[in-house]
Amino acid sequence: MFKKIKRILAWIGIILLAGMYGATLVFALLDSAWARGWLRASLAMTLIVPVLLYAYIFIYKLLKKDPEDL
Q1: Which among 53, 36, 43 is positioned nearest to 22, based on CA atoms?
Q2: What's the rounded Cα separation, in Å, for the pair 36 and 42?
Q3: Whole-model pTM over 0.85
């Protein structure tokens, strides 16, 4: 069960990161005040999303306490 959840979270992370990379590229090419703000937000989320996904998986493992998953 954990492997299925881990795989789903990995795909969600891949899709989110790909979308954010694309958005970052678009915002970097646009020249307006709002685009700079969205560029900063996109760069921040590019770092935050993988960390949050890793933290979720780590906490899930700790709460589950199944020796084969650790």
Answers
A1: 43
A2: 10
A3: no
How far is residue 19's CA from residue 13's CA, in Å, rounded to a whole number?
10
Question: Are 60 and 5 in contact, with CB atoms under 8 Å apart?
Answer: yes
Report in angstroms the alpha-carbon separations of 47 from 37, 39, 50, 57, 67.
Answer: 16, 13, 6, 16, 30
Predicted confidence at residue 42, as pLDDT, reads 80
d(CA 9, CA 17): 12
For residues 14 and 25, give the distance between their C-alpha atoms in angstroms, rounded to a whole number. Answer: 16
Residue 9, judged by CB atoms within 10 A of its CB (0-12, 13-18, 19+), counts as middle
pLDDT digit string, tens, across residues 16-56: 888 888 888 887 888 888 888 888 888 888 888 788 878 98
